[in-house]
Every structure is written in C-alpha cells, then in structure tokens.
C-alpha cells in the first residue's frame, strides 16, 4: 500500500535556517507541453520551485539548458548542499533504463538522450527519468488523492492526455515502458488526427488541445457568439480555457462540445475499469482545475457508469487529483529519493534478480 504523509510544495525557497543544510538534496523536474516546473527536494519535502515556459519549438537542447540553469540557480541558495541526483518527469514514450525519450508528439523530441544531456550540464550527477503521467500517478498515490488505494488508474488531462496504472501498489511500466498510454487509446474510429500520427485517439478528442481546436471550429462555423467575443478580447486565439468560460456563460455550442469531450473520457474510463477493476480513478492535469472539474466530472461519471456492470457502479471512486502542478514533482522525487515507495520497489526488484 502506498501511503506516506508529507507537506506539499510551497513554491518558494526554503526559509533561511530552515534546516536543509546537512540533508541530501535532490533536483526534481516536471516537463510539460507548455510549462516546466523545476525544484529542489529532500527525501520527504519539496523545498523550492521555479516555473519555466517550455518553448518546445526551440528544441530539446534549449529546454535542457534552461532546466540545468534553473536547478543550478535554486541549488545556489545559502546552506544547501550540492545536488545528489535529479528525478525528471518527461513526456514519453521513453526508455527509463537508457534515459532516452523515443519521441514526444507535443515537444518534437526524437531519440533524445535527455538523462545524459542533463547530467552532463550538471557536472555528471545521476539523472533518472520516467513518463510524466507515471510520475503524476506515483505522486498522487504517495501524497495525493490516490493515498490508500492499491489499485489505481490516473489520467492527466492537459495539453495532451497521459495515463498510468498502479496494481497491487506497483506502478505498471510494461514490456517496453509503454504501459498506460491511455491518451492513445482508439476512441473514435477514423476520427481526427492525433499528434502521435494515428487517428481517433482519446487525446485527439478530449485533451486541452482538442477542446481548443474544436472551439476554433465553432468560430469558423459561426456557432458560438460567446466564444467569438472572448477570442476577440483575447487576441483571436482559441484555447480550452476560453471554451470553458463560454460554456460557463451559457453558450450552448460550447456546452455541447464539453459534454462530448466528457463523454469520450467517461467511455474510455469505463473501459479501463472493466479491464483493470481499480478502486479509484484520479483525474489530474490543467484541464481538471477545480472550476473545470465541476463542469466535467458529473458528465464523465455518468458516461463511465453506462459502461459498467451494476455491481461496479459506486464501487470505483472517480476523484480529482489533489496535488495540481506538484504531482509530477512528487513522482520525480520517487525516482531518486531513498525511502519512497518507488525506491522500495527498485530494491525489491534488485533482490529478486539477485
């Protein structure tokens, strides 16, 4: 069972004299499609964070340069020891053992040795990586909404859609580190193209990018006066937040768009529940901020229940993530911190191989 209690990240540097000197300090980083969160942590506490814009089009080397700069700046605070290791949460598919990202549809990386590149910029300290959704799931299971559940599914709904599965308290990676690619489940046969190169993926019909794209189509068809007004006021670009705001203002076209996206999510979650029989499903990511979750969760739950046996309805909890932007950092910390559930799992794996 994964259950550890610890304070959440404060988003501020540690107070002077706060006692971090003499303790092992780790770097923790969560790379997303639009933003990067870099931080410092002990084995049980996130001490400081710094937010960066991803700027994906500038390429992976630029991103790694700026991550290294942020960690170096944070670690330069008085009284802090040198970083011992870095845990890096990054979009996949990837190879944890080699530290290589195979490709990232939203970042345009291809066969990039991110662990080695970041380690080189930081003077050779160890860098461990895992998929960002796996890290978010590990974080929520350790410190957030997933505490106390041995069987858990986590979806991160943001720029794209990530997913992760925990069974018997163990994060499932699969044969090629590709388990949990929930965002690339085929939901709409012959549906809209996805950034991964396939069509009809859940990510292509229910992610933040998808909601923004579908909202832009409403403007082209002159079907949403409220969204058109908001887009003009915001400079003309349509993104998911505008669609949610227009729906909240009573715009029927945007309300129908969000209901459809929620329906796709509910159907996908219902299928996952049928296959995996989890105790809970946790929904995180930027799209699931509190105000949006209040709009989406009832529709997602209703559609999920339509796909479940009667005895399953009510037996699986559908929860919003508790950690917000910190989820990936807590998961990244598990990659390097002794005493974490992931560290215990690594030790058990090593013992079984021996």
What does this 3D model show about the protein?
The model is unreliable at 1-21 and 350-354 (pLDDT under 50). The protein folds into two domains: 26-136 and 325-353, Nucleotidyltransferase, domain 5, CATH 3.30.420; 149-321, ATPase, nucleotide binding domain (Nucleotidyltransferase, domain 5). The chain is built from eleven helices and 13 strands. The strands form three sheets. Strands 3-2-1-4-8 form a five-stranded mixed sheet, with helices on both faces. Helix 1 (60-75) packs across helix 2. The chain starts with 25 loop residues before the first strand and ends with a helix. The chain is globular. 38% of the residues lie in helices and 19% in strands. It has helices at residues 60-75, 114-121, 132-143, 202-206, 208-220, 225-233, 240-248, 252-276, 290-306, 327-334, 341-353; strands spanning 26-31, 35-41, 46-53, 86-90, 94-95, 100-104, 109-112, 127-131, 152-157, 161-167, 170-171, 280-284, 317-320. The protein is of the alpha/beta class.
In brief, what are we looking at here?
This protein is of the alpha/beta class. It is built from eleven helices and 13 strands. The N terminus and C terminus are likely disordered.
């Amino acid at each position: 069972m994964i259950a550890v209690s610890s304070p959440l990240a404060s988003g501020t540097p540690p107070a002077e004299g706060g006692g971090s000197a003499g303790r092992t300090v780790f770097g923790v980083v969560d790379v997303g499609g639009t933003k990067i969160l870099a931080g410092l942590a002990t084995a049980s506490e996130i001490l400081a964070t710094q937010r960066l814009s991803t700027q994906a089009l500038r390429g992976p080397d630029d991103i790694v340069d700026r991550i290294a700069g942020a960690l170096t700046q944070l670690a330069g605070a008085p009284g802090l020891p040198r970083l011992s290791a870095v845990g890096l949460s990054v979009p996949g598919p990837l190879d944890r053992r080699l530290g290589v990202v195979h490709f990232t549809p939203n970042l345009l990386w291809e066969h990039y040795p991110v662990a080695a590149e970041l380690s080189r910029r930081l003077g050779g300290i160890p860098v461990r990586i895992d998929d960002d959704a796996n890290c978010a799931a590990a974080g929520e299971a350790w410190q957030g909404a997933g505490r106390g559940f041995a069987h858990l599914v986590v979806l991160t709904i943001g720029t794209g859609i990530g997913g992760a599965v925990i069974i018997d308290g163990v994060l499932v990676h699969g044969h090629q580190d590709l388990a949990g690619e929930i965002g690339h489940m085929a939901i709409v046969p012959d549906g809209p193209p996805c950034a991964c190169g396939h069509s009809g993926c859940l990510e292509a019909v229910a992610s933040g990018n998808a909601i923004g794209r579908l909202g832009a189509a409403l403007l082209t068809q002159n079907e949403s006066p409220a969204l058109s007004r908001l887009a003009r006021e915001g400079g003309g670009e349509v993104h998911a937040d505008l669609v949610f705001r227009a729906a909240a203002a009573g715009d029927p076209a945007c309300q129908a768009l969000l209901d459809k996206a929620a329906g796709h999510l509910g159907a996908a979650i219902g299928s996952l529940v049928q296959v995996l029989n989890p105790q809970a499903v946790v929904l995180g990511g930027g799209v699931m901020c509190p105000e949006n979750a209040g709009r989406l969760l009832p529709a997602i739950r209703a559609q999920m229940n339509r796909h479940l046996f009667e005895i399953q309805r009510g037996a699986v909890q559908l929860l919003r993530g508790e950690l917000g932007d910190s989820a990936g950092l807590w998961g990244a910390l598990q990659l390097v911190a002794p005493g974490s559930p992931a560290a215990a799992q690594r030790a058990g794996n090593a013992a079984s191989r021996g």
